[in-house]
Amino acid sequence: MSEVVVDAQSEVASHRSRGRIQRIGRAHHGPNRLDRILAANRQGHNWTRGEVVANAAKERSFLVLRIVSLNGFARCIHKLQPDNFKVASLNSGSDFTDEISLNAARLNENQSCFHEPRSVPTCLMAHEKAPGVLSYARLVTVARISNLTVRYGNFTALDDLSCEIPEGCTGLLGPNGAGKTTLLKTILGFVNPTSGEGTVMDKNIRTDGMAIRQLIGLMPEQDCHIPGMTAVGFVSYAGELSGMPPADALRRAHEVLEYCGLGEARYRNVETYSTGMKQRIKLAQALVHGPKLLLLDEPTNGLDPRGREEMLDLVRSVSHGRGVNVIVSSHLLPDIERVCDRVIVVIKGKLRTAGTIKDLKKLAGQPADVELREPNLAFANLLMEKGLTVAPPKGNVYRVQSELPPEDLLRVVQRTAVESGAQVRGFETAVRTLEEVFLEALTA
Amino acid sequence: MIQIENASRWFGQVIGVNDVTHTIEPGVTALLGMNGAGKSTLLRLITGQIRPTTGSIKVFGNEPFANPEVYKRMGYCPEIDQFYEHRTGRQFVNYLARLAGMSAAEAKTRTDEVLQEVGMADRADKKLAGYSKGMRQRIKLAQAILHDPDIILLDEPLNGLDPVGRREFMSYLHTLAERGKTILVSSHILFEVEQMTKSIMLLHRGRLLAASDVSLIREYIDKYPHRVRIETPQPREVAAKLIQLPYVLKVEFDEWRGGIELQTRELNQFFAFLPTLTTEENFTITGFSSPDNNLESIFHYLIE
Amino acid sequence: MSNIKPIADLSYRNYDGPLKKPGSRWWVIAKNGIRIALKKKALWFWMFGSAWYYLAMLVGLFFFQQVSSANPPIKQAMQAFLERIVWQDQFLHGFSFGQMAMLIISLMLGSGSIADDNRSNAMLIYLSKPCAKREYLFGKWVGIALPVFVIMVIPTIVFYAYGALTFREYGFLKDAWLLPKMLVIIPIAAMLHASIVVGISSMFNQGRNASATYAGLYFLGYFFTSLMGGIWASSRGETTYPVRHLFYGSIDGILIGVCKAIVGTNGSPPFGIQNPGRMSQVPAPNVAAILGIALLISVVFVLIAWRKIRAVEVIG
What we know:
- The complex is a heterotrimer.
- Chain A has three domains: 2-126, no CATH class; 147-357, P-loop containing nucleotide triphosphate hydrolases (Rossmann fold); 362-437, Alpha-Beta Plaits, CATH 3.30.70.1560.
- In chain A, 32% of the residues lie in helices and 27% in strands.
- Chain A contains 14 helices and 22 strands.
- The N and C termini of chain A lie far apart (57 Å).
- Chain B is of the alpha/beta class.
- Chain B has two domains: 2-219, P-loop containing nucleotide triphosphate hydrolases (Rossmann fold, 3-Layer(aba) Sandwich), CATH 3.40.50; 222-302, Alpha-Beta Plaits (2-Layer Sandwich).
- Classes of the chains: A alpha+beta, B alpha/beta, C mainly alpha.
- At the A-C interface, helix 2, strand 7, helix 4, helix 5 and helix 6 of A face helix 1 and helix 7 of C.
């Protein structure tokens, strides 16, 4: 029997089983109304009435329903919310991150939010105002840093830095020596700040360093394997160091190494490995104890293009929908674009920019990038005569500014191209590259 | 100018480079390949550290092996990261300047100039042991350009640099190229290579797979026809129209993003035809692009 | 949505199993250190080598016993020998003659313990896990001290058992506390070796350099001690004051001193050879003093290791 707990204040329904609370969504109408609706649907026989439990500590009241079948309950909820959502599966996640897979095809109006494989909560938050869509009461924060100042002697590494790292995949950008490394050390609970506070997964960085490190996996930049061990030995050793019992550590080491793509090679000595395999082992030892937060420092260091793709795919598949939050620190901005949803830019110890990559890349006014087969001056002039703003070309690409919607703009552009003898080879909404975002933050 | 003619080099039974023929012109050329493809071997052949087992390599008409005349005109920025850690950056560069044959006074002025050019003038007086990766890369570049060489070879030069450093480094390389120098860069980071140059040499398992301009190479990859993505709210109608064209080979529907992707061998004809869809037949198209016209796709296609 | 899934989902799963609290990691580290060391084949050779005195005595005594049962004159000689032999001193000799081998064993077990981790950046792994510095250090220490203890204790117990069963009438069990005393001395020796090795290992980046340093220090001291012993013996104790104390001024010396002091003997020639009176043994030192020195040195080296293991440079 599982329990479903509906939180009256935040109207969040949670599934509690085996001591873990897992939210499955918001009860759109509050517990009493929900109660009545469920009562009306009792034919489902999937649940029995529970009791109202007042949790004095949090000053909330819960409606506890004892249910026989979680799936049945989910079906029941589905009937209540006819607007096309369905709980496809409930994963037994941790008590920290909430997991829910939604069948995207069922979501008609709000389809766009599921077209990117982001972490679901972020996506739902964006649409919490849409009717009938499940949303979460709050976005879970992975790390919260407030007014943190760190000084090494005279040198100020972090200067009154405040940031919140939400769940999902976050990129950490910054020039060398700007405090990125110090921030990572802070998140690991190593640094004694001069002033300020911080919590990582609800644990204080000043006092609970050990507990934090239990929940974090670090993939360092340098090579750090212990010579003389096989990959399995090394990863299970790392697991045991994190507190796993030896049998579990070995089993889990195999599982994680399989996931990271090391087949038979795992029985060989680590010193015989190529760079790509060494990077995978570093990732494996970071994942072996099932951390809730993964810190990756230059994960694609030294990898050739194929290795780079495989590593990025690995990171992406771990971070999306699996309850593992990732912070990637890298200088390679396209890597970060590929893997992360948000970025934090730290320059000279201060937080300069933070936000989702999509938002940061947006350009005001929706300009379009027009790529021609070869640069054509007549084309640009003609466009300008028609009242559009055209920037000087970068290579074959012209940036055109206008108020027309994209399809109309395209028509105008095509017509002009035909008139001026140019051939349009590409037409896309212009976005800033992450590099431009970064450089702008630098010079701001 | 570097002329490589049927050069091969093997180590015991392991092949390093296998029958490579190419001429490297002035400008920036990128040397690409997987790990173990022979890039380092080729660089060592050009810098004259080893000799080709068969074939020949000529730099400015002479063999580079143990040839100080050629060395005087070459600068090498290797991938290794070991220095005299107890020296400062300035002392290190100065030392190498003296080794190159400059007098003490010349070496001093030249060191200052070079450190200025790479942007290390203010930080060069700390011990090398405390340098970050980016600072080390700059020192390496500094020592490579000390004697104003005509050829500069760089092995993974952008490793460890932050985006600002990257930009500066790349623009500096461009300046050097504009002065007429031959620059050969070996790198794994394809998107940077794309920004640096259009002419590449692709090595795979010792053999030269492709050596030319990126767009030209794409034209010649027959096995993979060009892909074009079209974003439109009317995918089926647009597809129906396009599929009648004889040179469109395949049309796929992208449920996820709501558009179509097609394959064609005749890009010119296709893009000449496309305006009629929007202007004359009034279909709604919100965007289109060629997703595989970049270096990463070429790399993928060639190394399969 | 059914619960039956014919194809398993092998994508990444989170780990939900038990996790031990910090405080027990030292055993993991110790176990790992021991396992790595046991793989070295030379270790087994030196293990037997460290017990060579006991083995020699066992073999000799056994052989002579067998022979003497048939041969009266040898039996007589044997009786005389067994009457005059000081059993406690045999343990002293067994212990002290094995120290050279114990040095080599300690080095094999521990010279790379921290040095290798320094070189290969494995510190990053250790310290990014919930593993405190003290646990790490203690684990490495135990990884040396425990095997050293076991290697020393087994021959001692075997010899004791043989002697207790065979030579009881010759006064083997005269000192009832002999075995417990050995069981106090041996851990002290293990502690000393382990502490020094751990301390020296943390100072270097390569196990080899650590080995060379400790071995060098040890041998210098060993020669010094032998020199002092020779001076004392040849002058029959009538020499200036310092020699008697300087004899204990090396690691070898300290260990011999600890053994002598706790067992309570001044020593006698090895193998029960008759002493015509021309050589005399250096008397035992003060128990408290020698134990204090041993403890002090151990603590000093452990503190060195503690300072050298830096937790801060986790990310380069």
